[in-house]
Amino acid sequence: MTERLNIAIVGAGIGGLSAALALSARGMTVTVFEGAESPREAGAGLSIPPNALILLKRTALCDEIEKITTRSQGLTRRTSRGEPISPGSPTVLSYQVHRVEFLEMLLGVVKGSVRFGHRCMAVENTQTGARLSFANGVVYDADVVIGADGIHSVVQRQIGLTAHPTSEGIVAYRGLVQSQKLSWGVELRGLNMWMGEGRSFICFPVSLGRLINIVAFVPTMHDMEETWSAPGDLRALAAEYEGWDAPVRDLIAALEHTFRWGIYDRPPLPYWSRGHVTLIGDAAHPMVPHFGQGAGQAIEDAFALAVLLEHAKRHEIPGRLKAYQDLRWERTSRVQAASRLAGRFYRSVGDPAQAQRLQAWMSAAEWIFPHDAEKAAVALRG
Length: 382
Prior knowledge:
There is one protein chain. By secondary structure, this protein is α/β, with parallel strands linked by helices. Helices cover 32% and strands 26% of the residues. The strands form 4 sheets. It has a 7-stranded mixed sheet with strand order 5-13-14-15-12-17-16. The protein has a 5-stranded parallel sheet with strand order 7-2-1-11-18. A 3-stranded antiparallel sheet has the order 3-6-4.
C-alpha cells in the first residue's frame, strides 16, 4: 500500500483551497498555511468559467455551488452610448459568485486542514522533501510544498524566480451595489460590458442577485498599487464615465465606496517547480483580468496537480512536479496571451483592426472553455 503523501500549501486563496480539496479527495494528507490571522473578508465578484465548473461539479461541492452562484450565458457588449456590439462572445455557461462566499464554501470543506497566522518566510528543499519556515517560529517538513501565495509569492522567490511586471497603463475600480437600490437592479442578468474611449465597464449579479459587482477599467499615467484594497475616489470614477450609457452612470452613483488597483502584466515564468516545491495559480502564471480566467486556471492547476501526485512515491515527486509544470505551462501561457489580447480589444472600439482582434479572441475562447484539466492529467500520467 502506497504511503500517504504529506502536502503543505502556502496560501488559503482560491488556488490553495481548491488544491486542498482536490488533493484530499485523492487520498493525500494536506495542511494549508495562511499568513492572515483569520479567514479573509475582502473581495468582490468573480466568474467561474466552464473549464473550472466541470472540475468543481465532480466534488462534494456539486450541490453547494448552486446555492451561492448566478448563471449566465455569454457576454453582452455595448458601446459607451449603449448600442449593441456584434458579433457577441461565445455562448457558454458560467457562474458568477461573490469571492468571499466562494472562499467560505471551499473553507467549509477543508477547514480542518487550514492553519491561519502562519506567514511564510522561507522554503528549502531537503534530501527527502521540503521545509517551510514561518514568522511565528514554526518549522514544517512536507513531502511537497505548493506555493499558492499569489502575485507577490514568497515561494516563487524561494525557488529562484523573479517576476518582471509591466504596467498596462490601466487602473481598475471594483465595487458592489445593492441591487434593490436601482429600479432595474433586481432584473439584471448575466455578464454586461460597455466599451469605448479607452475604457471598459463590466457588471454582473452575485449573491443570488442581491448584489451587483462592477469593475471599471480606465487609463492612467501613474503607477498604481497592485492591491485590491486601496481606496478609490468615487468622484474621479464618475468623471471618467461622464456621458456614458445610463446604467453605467446609475451603478457608479449607487456605489458607497470603491477600491482601485493597478493592472500589471507579466511574461510566463521559465519554470514553476524545483525539487519538491511547485507553484499554482497567480504564483505560477499571473494574468491580467480581462478574460476572467484567473480563478479558472488556478482551479485547473489544483486538479491536474492532484491527479499527477496521486499514488506517487516520494522519490518520484520531482518528476511528477516537472510533468505538472510541462502539462500546464503551455496552456496557461496561451491563456495569459488571450487575456492580454482581450484587454486590448476592449479598449479599441473604433480601431480598424478591431475585427481581426475579435476573431483572434474568439479563436482563443474556442479552446479555453471545453478543456478538462483532470482528464488531461490522467492521460499524461497513464
